[in-house]
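hiii, so i know i said id send this last week but things got crazy w the move. better late than never?? heres the sequnce for the chain we talked about at the cafe, plus the structure i predicted for it. fair warning i was half asleep when i ran it
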Amino acid sequence: MKKRWYKIIFLTSFVLFFSYIRCPVAETHIKELIKKKDIHITSDYMEYDEDKKRFLAKGDVKISIDGYTIETDMVIYDQSKGEIRILRGFLYEKEGDQIMGRRAIFNINTMEGKIEDGKILLKGSDFYLSGSIIEKTGPNSYMIEDCKITTCSGDRPDWSFSAKKVELTIEGYGKAKGATFWIKDLPLLYIPYTVFPVKTKRQSGILFPRFGISDRNGIETEIPIFWAIRANMDATFYERYMKDRGLMQGMEFRYLLNDRSKGSILLDILSDRVKEKRIYDEMDMALSPYARTNRVRYWLRGKIDQDIAKNMKLRADLDILSDQDYLREFNTSLFGNDPREDLDLSFNRYSYDSLSEFRRSSLRLSYDNQDLFCIYIGSSYLQRPESPSPETTTQPLYETALHIPLRPFSILPHLDYSLIAKAQYNWERDGEKGERILLSPKFSYPILSLPYIELEPFLEFNILNDWYSDESGKRDEELGSSFRLGLNSGIHLQKIYSQGYRHKISPSIRYEVGDYHREGGNTWYDPLREDNNIHCISLLIRQTLDHKLKDRYHQIATLWLEQAYNLNHDETEFLPLSIILTLNTSKYVSIYSKTLYDHDTDRVKWTFTSIDISLPQIEADLTYHYRREESKDLSLDLTIEPLSGISAGMNIRKELYWDEDLSSSYFIRYESQCWAVQISWSKLDDAKSVMFNFDLRGLGSIL
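okay and structure toks below
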């Protein structure tokens, strides 16, 4: 920085001097210097006082050097003192950062100086700092008198901090004595001494706390503390105090190497003041019918995606709970605006929801050579937080698999084949333990493959072998096998309309026969049972509607109908009708629906429907899941913004079959340019909670 001011002043002196004393040799030297140092100065008028060794530039003065510019109306450079004086209003700008003021004086040797009635705006953080005197004490450090700090624009900011004296370093921290927090012109809070980050990049500091009250936990508050460890790594610590439950401490660690290599680990832990579950309390028993005696409550979860080498990836999922009631009692996401990361959204992998009886942890290392083959080694564990006895959940603690996608045989190019091979070690705490091998080759032979007609027979084998031992240590073996033989035939038709629409229809008929055989009982889940004694013929009609935009067709609707007829006459003749519908009529609305219709009862057997709406003022996600004589789940997630800056939303889950409200939450939020406030209300089972959030924008929610 010292070099830059030295360049500016000396170039200014040369230009002023030789604009006043016309010397051809000197002019040539200046031009060479400007070209060499990449410096440019312009003004309407320049002069040089040789006796006082002083340069004067007036009228639209512009100085540019090494990426920054200074614009003003009058500059004086005192060569003997090494000082530059800006006598009229000026604007300094570099990479979006701006300094403005009425007058200024700088020493080009020490890069120290003073600015009168100055303002500083830092790009990226929207920091506005102003003061009657801004003293530059170093390249990036300042001392400001009568300082005002805000992230709000305008002469009367919605909020601001003021202090008699502030010392700060850009990309470092600021120290303020006798600070006052203002709402408009109203002083609201006096702070004798405070330290705050002044950074255009990610900031470490105390995020604004959240406040709330609930039936279960009493009055509560949570203070997040953010730590920017490095450019691609950070952590957040959460201090959540609940009057009736104690202090819960949380940690969230994140790293990002690139789009394919990232990870997040979260932990919340509490020494609960409520030592054990009150089994005679209706509110406690609404959580679950299981007892709880543990005092230490925790939830450990995380996800990792890591590229190991070319085509080799590591994936890890972690989800462990201390007990079955934890998520119903302490799930902060019900309040909305939870600062914790949404792992499912960030990693595009589903986790079991809070109402599930299982928590799943897994580790998988895979090598995927695109179209040639894929091989992986993995392990997974399904936790039952209620710790039932006996515990007979099958745990595939080890699994390795090879998958070869459909491809032509090298010696018989018209014969296609694929292969799935798996080896597992299954473990049950109070049940069988042992190994499993599964082989599934598949063959197909396209007899007829024309532009509009296809005819293809196929054959699939499945061989399953289990070796297991029971609790007594007795060793046993079971063998299962199945085959499926069939013929696919179909035609493909399409019609293109002048308006840019294309309709395609593909009716096809499939005939298949299969048999299943297994020695002994069913030790673990048997994937071959679905192939048990198949003998049916199916009609499948696939329709799509596409719309051409520019040079490409985009799918806007699909309708798939599949009806199978069972040729085993001792069983149900017509199998359930399958209907799948998708609609993407615009970027604002999408619909997906799948339904199974049972002919025997003339009723819907199973259905799932999802509707997503994304409009400028409305975001909505509606899902409905029906299982006959079991459940009817309805879920709605809705956010509306009727006016600029004002939004409201709800998230409700209902079980219509049993007429139960599973959970519900509502919020209303107001956002301005530099602050936001949100009030949330939620209900889970019979417990109600209210949460209050306040956010100072641009300060990174720094308190």
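btw The chain has a mean pLDDT of 83. thought thatd interest u
miss u guys!!
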